[in-house]
């Protein structure tokens, strides 16, 4: 019988396994190792002590045992999620989705919230970098030239992934929706229903975000494919910090040449639109059709089930966390960009145009879902 202590044998077995693991990979719990190898806790702990002294593993309190050289150090520091300090369905979904994805990797989530003003958002991003977190998840809302510069500089030393909304800074990673195609499909539904006077609903400052630019481009592409000219007079541009502040919506909806349909780049303004539609004595979809790109949660309080392209926000957040985790453990900060497909959902907000605006014979009509 070998006189070598039993823990040396367990040490050799564990060492062989650990050398095959990537940096940052988590091992089983001590109790699981004890059960798997059929030895005492003291034996397992002695083997782990040797592996720690050799620098192959590191133990993080309340987190677990990790292959050294990766996320073992990172999990001691939180991942910061930067969001506006508003209670909206989109922000709630992002918070819970990011929390679940980070928890699965034994990483902690820390929030940093800001007011919907450019200076407050810029200050929050600067503070996030100053805290030297493991990484940053960020959905930008108010973009400035200074903010873009801070992002360019910061992502050179701190892993950062934008999610759902993109500033267009090439050096910063991003996970979001294929916005151009989602918007084209959503607008094409209005064209297929026979609408010719189609307006665009978008937040002020949309040109600051690449994804918003792509949604507008998708809208225009669908109009072009349908042989329809875009008229700026049909558009509603609202203030994202106070959606009651928008262009003359009542006047627009009351005019003889009013639009008969709208595509909204997001759902923020839709509750206000529905109120104004009712005030003007109109009905959806009898008098006005509406379609949109956003997440399912934002449509639940609307009086009509909306025809829409849903953003897969849980999948976007999950993939953003995966990319961030890869950047943390590999120390490879090269930008990644991944786009996911939207989900087409048929509701009851799109129908043919009012009879006073019926298209010429031969045009394609879409029947209302009523």
Explain what the structure shows.
Pfam families: GntR (PF00392), Peripla_BP_3 (PF13377). This is GntR family transcriptional regulator. It comes from Victivallis vadensis. Residues 4-70 form the HTH gntR-type domain. It is a single chain. With 370 residues, the protein is an alpha/beta fold. The protein has 3 domains: 6-73, Orthogonal Bundle (Arc Repressor Mutant, subunit A); 76-177 and 313-343, Response regulator (Rossmann fold); 179-311 and 344-357, Response regulator (Rossmann fold, 3-Layer(aba) Sandwich). The protein is built from 12 helices and 15 strands. It has helices spanning 6-18, 30-37, 41-53, 71-74, 89-103, 118-130, 145-154, 179-192, 210-225, 249-254, 270-279, 313-330; strands at residues 57-60, 64-67, 79-84, 109-114, 135-138, 160-163, 173-177, 198-203, 236-239, 242-246, 261-264, 289-294, 307-310, 337-340, 343-345. A 7-stranded mixed beta sheet has the order 10-9-8-11-12-13-15, with helices on one face. A 6-stranded parallel beta sheet has the order 4-3-5-6-7-14, with helices on both faces. A two-stranded antiparallel sheet has the order 1-2. Helix 2 (30-37) crosses helix 3 (41-53) and helix 8 runs parallel beside helix 9. The longest helix is centred in the C-terminal third of the chain and has 18 residues, at 313-330. The model is unreliable at 357-370 (pLDDT under 50).
């Amino acid at each position: 019988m070998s006189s070598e202590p039993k823990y040396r044998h367990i040490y050799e077995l564990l060492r062989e396994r650990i050398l095959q693991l990537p940096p940052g990979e988590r091992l089983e719990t001590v109790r699981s190792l004890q059960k798997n190898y059929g030895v005492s806790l003291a034996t397992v702990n002695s083997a782990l002590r040797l592996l720690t002294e050799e620098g192959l593993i590191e133990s993080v309190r309340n987190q677990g045992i990790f292959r050294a050289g990766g996320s073992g150090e990172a999990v001691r520091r939180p991942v910061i999620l930067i969001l506006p300090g508003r209670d909206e369905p989109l922000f709630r979904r992002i918070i819970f989705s990011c929390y679940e994805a980070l928890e699965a990797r034994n990483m902690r989530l820390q929030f940093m919230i800001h007011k919907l003003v450019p200076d407050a958002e810029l200050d929050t991003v600067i503070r996030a970098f100053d805290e030297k977190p493991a990484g940053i998840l960020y959905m930008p809302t108010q973009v400035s030239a200074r903010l873009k510069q801070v992002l360019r500089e910061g992502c050179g030393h701190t892993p950062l992934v934008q999610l759902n909304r993109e500033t267009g800074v090439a050096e910063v990673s991003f996970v979001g929706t294929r916005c151009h195609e989602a918007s084209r499909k959503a607008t094409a539904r209005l064209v297929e229903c026979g609408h010719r006077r189609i307006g665009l609903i978008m937040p002020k400052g949309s040109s600051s975000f690449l994804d918003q630019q792509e949604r507008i481009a998708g809208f225009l592409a669908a109009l072009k494919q349908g042989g329809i000219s875009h008229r700026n007079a049909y558009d509603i541009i609202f203030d994202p910090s106070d959606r009651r502040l928008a262009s003359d919506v009542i006047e627009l909806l009351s005019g003889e040449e009013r639009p008969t349909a709208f595509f909204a780049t997001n759902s923020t303004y839709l509750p206000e639109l529905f109120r104004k539609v009712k005030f003007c004595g109109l009905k959806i979809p009898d008098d006005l059709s509406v379609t949109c790109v956003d997440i399912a949660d934002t449509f639940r309080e609307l009086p009509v089930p909306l025809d829409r392209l849903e953003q897969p926000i849980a999948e976007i957040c999950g993939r953003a966390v995966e990319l961030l985790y890869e950047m943390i453990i590999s120390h490879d900060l090269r930008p990644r960009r991944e786009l996911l497909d939207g989900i087409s959902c048929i509701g009851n907000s799109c129908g043919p145009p009012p009879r006073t605006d019926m298209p010429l014979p031969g045009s394609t009509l879409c029947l209302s879902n009523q």
